[in-house]
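Dear U.,

For the methods section draft, I wanted the exact inputs and outputs in one place so we can describe them consistently. I've listed the two proteins in the order they'll appear in the manuscript figures. Please don't edit the C-alpha cell lines directly; just add comments below if something needs changing.

First protein:
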Amino acid sequence: MFFDRPDSGEISLLVNLHIDNDRDADDIVEFEELALSAGAQPVAIISGSRRQPSPSYFVGEGKLEELKAAVAAHKAEVVLFNHSLSPSQERNLERELKCRVIDRTGLILDIFAQRARSYEGKLQVELAQLQHMSSRLKRGWTHLDRQKGGIGMRGAGETQLEMDQRIIAQRIKSINKALVKVRTQRDQGRRSRRRAEVPTVSLVGYTNAGKSSLFNRLTRAQTYAADQLFATLDSTLRKVELPNFGQAIMADTVGFISHLPHQLVEAFRATLEETVQADLLLHVIDAAHDSHPEFIFEVESVLAEIGAQEVPQLQVFNKIDLLPGREPELQRNSAGKPHRVWISAKTGAGIETLLEAVSELLAGEMSDQLLRVAPSEARLRSKLYAANYVENEEITDDGHYLLRVRMPLQEFDRIKQQTGVAIEGVRQTAE
C-alpha cells in the first residue's frame, strides 16, 4: 500500500515562505533536493514572507491567487510546501488549488517510503505514515451513518471516517508490537557483542554527508551510496579491523536533516538505538558544504533528542577532495585526545589516520608490555596476533616467546588475570 510508487516524476510547484525570518537562503536549495529525491519535477518556486502563517491557508490571499495562477500555467499536479501544514490547511489548499498539496513532513515520508528496503525499515516508515495520516483523514461515506430506528434504517453503527481511524489504530498497534520484537533482537545482538567485548562505532551525520561512502571504504562493504538525500535508511552492521586494537562493529545509520519530523525520530528509534548504545560516534560532516556549521548543530540537536549526547564523539570532516589545498589531518583537543579528522571517503585520503584515531579513542589508556609466553600458551600468542597487538617477537633459548605488545590497558589487565602470563618489562603510555 505504502511502497508502490510510479517511476515517472510529477510536475510540482515548490512553496517556501520566510516566516518571521526563520529560514535562510540555503533552505530552499535543500528543499529542492528533497523534491528531486522524491521523484518530483519542480517547474517553479513560489517564495515570499509573512509575519505569521494564515490559519486557513498558511499563505495569504494574494499568495493564494499567485499559487492558483501558477498551478494553471504550469499544469502542476502537486504543490510542495517547505513547511509543516495543519490538516485543515492541507484540505483548504487542495480545495482551492484543485491538486494535491504535500507539506515537508509528507515529502520526507514519501522519500523514506521509496528507500525502505528491510522489513524493519518498512515497518518504521509505515508507522510514521500512519501517524501522519491519522490526523488527515477526510469525512466520507456518509451513508455508513449512526444507527437509526426502524426496519431497513439500521446503519453500520459508525461512519467511514471512524472505521478508517479504527483500522489505522489497529495497524499502528500491530506495527508497534512487531517493532518491540525488532528492538528485542537488537538488544540480544548488542548483549552478545558486549559479552564478546566487541565495541560498536556508529556513523552519524547530516544526510548526504558521505556516511555510506565512508562505511564502504572502512568495511569494504557494498551498501548503497548515492549523491542524494536519504540514500540510506536501514541500519547496516559490519566488522572492521582496527590497527593496534582488534575488531569493532561499524554501524551505518539514517542521515539527519533540519526540521526532521518528530514522527520519524520516534518511528526510527529502534534503528537509532544503535547510536545511543554505541561506544563511539563518528560524526561525518560535509566539509565542502558552506552550511556545515548549521548541519553540525542540527545533528547535535537530534542526538540530544534521542539521548546520545553523552556518547564519545569524533568529528570526521569528509570530502576534502573538493577543498583545494586541504590535506588529511588529525586535530586533538585540549586533553590531547583525537577530536577532528579531515579525510576523503571518495579518494581514501586520511583513512589510515581515521582508523588510528578510532583505535586510540576506543582503547583509552594504552599499555606497552614485553610478555614472556610459554610454548604451551600458543593459543594466547595466536589471539594477540589476531588482535594486531604484537609489534615485535623474539624466541628465547629455552623456547619461550618474547612479545612486544601494545594494547588497551584494560585488555592487558584482563589477559593477565585470565592467563597469569609473565611480564618481562612494563612501559605504560597514557593516551
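Second protein (the one for the lower panel):
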Amino acid sequence: MIFDKFIDDSAIIACITGSGANSATSVLRISGFKSITDFSSCFSRSVADFKPRYCELVNIIDINNEILDNAIVSYFPAPNSYTGENVLEISIHGNRLNVERIIDFFIAKKLCRLAAPGEFSYRALKNGKLSLSQIEGLDLLLNAKSPLALAQGNSLLKGELHDLYLKLRESFLRLKAALELSLDFFEDVDAEQADAEFNLALDEFTFLEQKLFNKTIFNSKNLLTPSIVVFGAPNAGKSSFFNRLLAYDRSIVSHVPGTTRDYVSEFIYYNGVEYRFVDTAGIRSSDDFIEQEGIAFSQKLLRDSFFSILIVNPLEVSDSSFMQDLVGRADQVIYSHKDILGEADPNPLKVEDFLSYNFRDQNCAFQILLNKISDFYREQSEAAGILVERQSRIIQDIDAQFSDFRNLMDLEHDRVIWANALSQISHLLEELIGIVALDDVLDTVFGNFCIGK
C-alpha cells in the first residue's frame, strides 16, 4: 500500500535532479519542516534573513563550523510551494559523494528523513496543490517514451483535461438539479419551464459527455511504449535481421530451428520516439513444452504490438495457409533470401538489404523501414485520445450509465426512477476528478515515481 511508505508527516529530503551520475549541480528538496529557524545552525548566514522565493548564496556548515559546500538556497513558505508545505530547495555541487554526504548531514541532525518515491507529489495531492488527474499526468510525463505521452502528460499537469472533467461534473450537477426541480413542479403551472431547463441541461451534459467519450474510443495504449515485434517461423532469419538492425549481435543466431525460445528486446530512438524492438521465438507447431511457452508468449507480444515485422524464408515455406495467416498479421514483410522474391509484395524488402548503415541515404533499407514506422506512429498519434487508462475507463463507464439513463427515459415515465438512475453517475464523476481516490489507484500511480518527485 502506498500509505505504508508515506508513514508520517515529518520533514522529508531527496535529490530531485540527476540520474545517479556526477553533474555540475544537484538540487536537494526538503519539505514539511515546521519553521525555517529549524535550519539556523546549518548555514553561514542567519535563516531569518532568507526572503521567500529568493535565491540566497550561503555555505553549508557542519557542527564543527567546517564548510561542507557552497550552495544556493531558496525558501518557499507554505502554502505557496509544490507540496503546500514549507520547502527548502538547495542547489549544491553535483558530485554524487557530495550529494549523499549533505543529505546524510541533514538527516543526522534529525531535520528530515529520506523521502519515498513519489512522496513529494503525494503531499501535493493531499494538500490540494495537485489533482489526481494532474498526478497521473506527471506520471505520464516522467515515464514518457514518446512525444505523444510528453504532450498529454504536460496537458494533464497543466490541468487542461482536468478542467474538462470539472465542467462535466458541473454540468451533471445542473442536470441533477433540473431533474429534481421538474419533480417538484411536475403538476404545477411552472412545469413547462422546469421541463425546458431540464432538457437544456440534458443537451449540455450529453454534448460534454460525448466529447470526452470520443477521446476514449481509440486504443492509445500501444502509443505510450510502442513495441516493434519481429516474428515468423523458426529459422526464417529473425535474429539475423534483429542483430543487423541493432548493429551488434544481441540475439543468438543458429541454423537449428527453435534456437530463440524467449524474446529479446532493445530500444531504438528515432524521430523523437523511443521504440522497443522485440525478437521473438519462432512460431510453429511444437511438442516441446518450453518451446510452446515461448511461442505462446510470441503470440501475445504480436497481439500487443504497435507494429509487426514478419521475416519470411521462401525456401522453407511448406504450409501456405499458415504463412498466409502470418502475412495477414504483419505490417511489414521482409524476405531472408535475395534471389527468391515473394509474390505478396511487388517491391519486397530483404534481410540482405539491411547490411548497410547509411542513414543519410533515403533509399537505405533501414531508412525505408524506420520512416514507415515513424509515419505510422504519427498517423496513429493524430487520432489518439486519453492515454491514462483509469480516466479512459471511467469515462466509458459514465457513457454506459448515461446511455442506460437515456433508454430508461424512453421506457419509464416516473421521474423518481429517473433521479435514482442518474445518481449512479455521481460516484463515477467523483472518481474521475479525484474526490474519491482508491488506494490501489494511488499505489499504481505512485509506484512509477522516482525518489525526489
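Candidate sentences for the figure legend, describing the second protein: The chain has 15 helices and twelve strands. The first strand starts at residue 12 and ends at 15.

Thanks,
Y.
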